[in-house]
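Researcher: Hi, I'm a grad student and pretty new to this. My advisor asked me to get structures for two proteins we've been looking at. I'm not sure of the right format, so I'll just paste the first sequence and hope you can take it from there.
Model: That works fine. Here's the first sequence with its structure tokens right after it:
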Amino acid sequence: MRTRKVIKTNIHTVECNTPLSGLIRARIMLVALLSLCFLLVFTPKSFGKAQTEMYEKGMKLSNKELKQRSNRYIYNKVNIDSALVYLSVVANRFYTDNQTSEDVKYSLGAMNDLGYIYFYFYYDYQKSYNYLSRALAESKKINDVEGMAYINLNLGNLYVTIFSIYNSPSMTTEALNTYKEAFRCALESKNWHTMQIIFSNMYNLAADIKKFDLIAEEINTYKKLKFDDDIPMVSYNRLMLKGFEALNRKDYKAALACFEPMAQSANSKLTPERDIVSALGQQAHIYSLMGNNDMAISKLYEARAIILAHNLKDYKVGCDKELYEYYTNIGKKDSAAKYRMEYLQARDSVVMLGKLHSVEELYFQNNLQNMNEEVRVMAQQRKLQSVITVLVAVIALVVIVFLVVIIIKNRQLKANHKKLFLQMEEVLRNDELIRQNRKEMQGRIRELETQIEETQQPKPKAQKYQNSNLDEEEKKDIYSKVCAVMEDSSAICKEGFTLKTLAEITGISYVRISQVINETAGKNFNTLLNEYRIKEACRRLVDYDNYGNLTIEGIAISIGFKSRTNFVATFKRITGLTPLEYQKLSKEQNNR
């Protein structure tokens, strides 16, 4: 998509400060102000409402469908407002999540088309620049070379128009550099159709400012390329090149022979009438160089008729300015004054029209912003809901896994506790049997021990008691007496029962008792005492007839422990279970 620069000859601009100029400007501004008031009062509500409804419908269509519809409107130059709405939908989707690479290109293409529409149809150059510059910046990020060719072309056209209407010379350099970048992108992407339009606009601008040297590389590249004849604008550009080459040689007849058939070769898809006007403008310029001002003016009138027929407001600015300058140069002041007023009116009309359209769309744009904000908020809410859903699912899964692990671990722990309980029960039963049979078997044990001692080497004494004079028989006798006392719960469960107490009961030195316990049992007195006390605790925990009225703390005190904490810790270390777990397992076992 593109627009072309306004026609311009090489006749210098002549300012004419007539007394009428202030009155003319005042009249133009009054008409524009009245138009603006009318538009503010009668237009925005219905205009904005219709576009808003169309926007809501467009939200339900795909990017491809919206682009196809907007293209039809643009090519046929009808329902441009509808094209604007559809393209706004596509462009705004660029800022939503989950955009595919194809969707991104659609959105950037829509920004480019919006820039084209605001420039070509609404003359709102600020808004056009905003869309085009944004599209170019985003296209560079994804290296969309073909898209950058279109965008740079439209930006170049915008700069040329600003130069023509506002007399801003700095824009010519910017426009030429932008066209050159567009040419490079078209060459890289092999977009030959777009290249024809880019080259035509670039070459015409270089001709106007007489800077062919700045595009010498592009001209040589273009001449070397082989294009199919059926590509639009190929014949037009070939005639243009030959025409300017003849013009540089001052062969005006040969130049005319090229520029005159250019009108029939203007076959671009969107703006053939602009290409025809440009060709007529060049013919007028050549006739002026030949001194035939009548023919020059005739060609400008011919171009002006096409401009008016197609309502090319920006081109009318340039054409009226050319007529004003021609008539000034040949001394026809009345005609010069007429077209100067036409030129000023056309220029201010374009400027004001852009402002009017901005006001006209203010209501619609506000609605679009509100709708876009609603869409953005809804998208964020959906995204947040998705995140929350996923998070809840993950948490639920973690909780389920955690519960399963806990259940499995609990079952394993329960099985392990049961195993420990059964082992402890077995230990207690064995201790009871040993206690009952100890006295009966004492004599027999002594005989067996004597026989064993006769057949085995005596064990070496421990280093700790290497100076002790106890023999093995004495040790066994002492340990037997120790065990007899330790099995007497009424003795060991008294608070303050110590090694010294044990020595007093047995009548044996506590030093010898300590030696025997360490060497025979492999542990110290306190450990042995705690083991016997915990065994007694196990008996009392399950003896509900005699001890059912005692708490865990009461049982702990009853067997000689001063605190519940110390008792529970000792019980857990020896049995692998807490007192409550042991009691619970006992109940479960008895209920079976």
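Researcher: Oh nice, that was easy. Here's the second one.
Model: And its structure:
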Amino acid sequence: MRLPIRPKAYPGENFVGYLERLAFDNGFASLLHFCHAIHQPDHSGTQLLMTALDIDALPQFSGKPFSNLQLPTDNLGLTWPFLTLHDYRVCIDCMAEATWCRPAWGLRFMWACPTHGCWLIQSVARSFSRDTGWWRKNTPVTEHAPEDVLALSALLEATVTRPGQAFIDARLPMIQITPTTQEVCRMIASLGRFELEVCQNKPRPHCNPDYQETRALFNASATLLSNWPYSLYHRLDLMRSQAPDDFSLQRVLGKWMQPAFRVLTSPCFQFLRNATEAYLKDHWSGTLSSRNSLLSEALRENHVRISFTKATRYKSAATLREILNTDGSPIAAVGKAPQRRLITFDSQLLSMVPEIKAEYLDLQSSARLLALPENRTRQMASWGMLPHAATPSETSNHCWRFRRKDLDAFNASFVRQPLPTDIKCLRLEGVLRYWQLADEEARDMLHAVQTGELLLYGTSGAQLGQCKLEQAKVRSWLDSYRRQHAIDLAIEDAARALGEKEEVVFHLVKQGLLPSVAATHRKGNARRITHAGMARFREEYIALIELARQQRRRTRDLLDELKPIYPVTGPTIDGGRKYFYRREDLATRLQARK
């Protein structure tokens, strides 16, 4: 069937709109009557429409393909929920200028005409059997749309009519990269749902909203984008006010982080993430760590809010507690979490706070002040060497208490000499921490340092633990002390006293040939050797190399000659480094020879 009136289609005209215009110009009462008139069972929709229009090729239409005439149309890269079929909208003023259905009118989120500044007219029925001339019976619209709605409509229309071209509009200055039509529709749906659900406390629209819900989403997203980014900041402030003590970014701002960082990930929506991070930088009271992986690395590393543990690197615990006890201080913020309390500080403001020196210090703070190991500081207090204000049994929290002035006086009681450059020195803190000193040895060594028997090198007022001692003199003093007091020796010191290598002594201890005892002053499995044990070992055993030196014989020849007397340990016996014989066995051998 060839139609008598065949209007020309405009580029990108909405397919259903063109069919209704074609049906009206040819006098059909409805689109349904038009489809029945040109229908032929054995012909495709393309052939039927080409025959009706008497043309060789159809122009490119936009919108959804009509169900009765399945023709290829340009869907603008959109999925079906973003396109309309029978409920498209029109601008009466635009129709008065040129009677054809613009491509953008077929979008589900298009609700205003940016050219005339008015709202679009919704189709009067959703059935394709309606009167095809319904839009000519409407009067021009006099109600003007708000500026924020017109700005968003202009962006949506530009993506359809001028795809790929730059979009410049003073009402939407944040749009630096022109998005596609599908990206704009996703933005309207995501931002509109956030605005309605979180800010206006309305039910969340469905995934496939009807025309009333799409208008609500369109208006909500336009409102959110107006006066950007202060409109967003107002809504984020509202979300934070509902949970002021919660420092969980997911629980407080998760409903905004989802669309801004997970849904709208295209580079054209970077302004959403930039505005969010700018807000977090100035207003977020919690910390930002590697767990907040959605945020940029620069924001996480340079965030001004730091935890209590990190703040102790810059200020003392006494200063931080004083800040917490100050009401209304902008430096500290306290949040609540299950079974614990979260405390953060503003690092920029914290740097301007003067250091508060507490009169009383605990054991840990005192050890840090003197730069000494904590266990040695405790021992010095228990020996009466270090003055203390209270013992653990005298305090409610069972902690040591020291006066700062007493600690300063104790530190100043040690006379320091200028540090020499030609001798090898060790820090006092390292000697007390890493040398295996018994409690009596550590006590008498500190007394020798305090009386000047062992010279202490360092600058005046330096921390006691950072001052240095001459290594050779400390070693000599310790050896002399152990000989005088018959104190057990470490295996390394015993090897030096026996004139053997450490591996040889370790093997003798392991085999039980050299008596050893457990160390009582330190943790672990370290063994120590008494002077009596070394004397007994010298009386009972003799090394083959020493015996060969006495007789001026080769060790190999002497080893064979002494058979059937065999050594108790050695390379061929148990893998030892040296051969050792019992003196009693050798004496029996010599007696038998005589």
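Researcher: Is there anything I should tell my advisor about the second?
Model: You could mention this: The radius of gyration is 46 Å.
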